[in-house]
Amino acid sequence: MLPRTLIGLLAAFTATTSLAACPDYLDHSMRKLHSREDVNFCEVFNDKPLLIVNTASHCGYTPQFKGLEALHQKYRERGLAVVGFASNDFKQEDADEANAAKVCRVNYGVTFTMVAPSEVTGDNANPVFQGINSQSQAPSWNFNKYVVDRNGKVVQHFGSNTQPDSKVLEAAIESVL
Questions:
Q1: What percent of the chain has pLDDT over 70?
Q2: Residues labelled catalytic
Q3: Burial label, 149 (beta-carbon count in 10 A; 0-12, 13-18, 19+)
Q4: Are 113 and 105 in contact (CB under 8 A)?
Q5: Quick one: three-class SS letters along 64-115?
Q6: Can you tell me the distance from the alpha carbon of 79 to that of 140, in angstroms, rounded to the nearest whole number?
Q7: What span, in angstroms and rounded, lies between the C-alpha atoms of 1 and 173?
Q8: Which of these ranges, 21-25, 71-75, 122-126, has the smallest mean pLDDT?
Q9: CA neighbours within 13 Å on the CB side: how many for 17?
Q10: 116-145: pLDDT as tens digits
């Protein structure tokens, strides 16, 4: 049996090395939508494949929330994390976070992580989207989808017109699982 101090050191080393592998652009905490709770991306999503989507609650593409939730349900047991970033970059996010959260959770049954509104384009983009945009292209509208591998590399970008049940999107997701 190992002494307690050695067990503690081993646990600290393991936690430190797993967090150290997290890409810099994910090494941030952001507030969840209509919540006081923060999500630390390295703690929650490190070493997981991701589907990152910029969203808005009053957009013609807003019904895609239902399909994104279906992807979350289908692939979460295989490690995929779907993360939505509410944004008003294209002037279609509700100014009231409670209403935006209602659209997601009540109208479309969203249970995946949704982040409070922030910018996803330009010089003021949040740190996660700064990293995504440097690897791919910045969203040109709401509901752009980014498939990210376990190492934090954006492997494919899909525009707003790509529906969540698209075979090409699902193939990209499968490729990172």
A1: 89
A2: 59
A3: middle
A4: no
A5: HHHHHHHHHHHHHHHCCEEEEEECCCCCCCCCCHHHHHHHHHHHHCCCCEEE
A6: 28
A7: 42
A8: 21-25
A9: 6
A10: 999 999 999 999 999 999 999 999 999 999
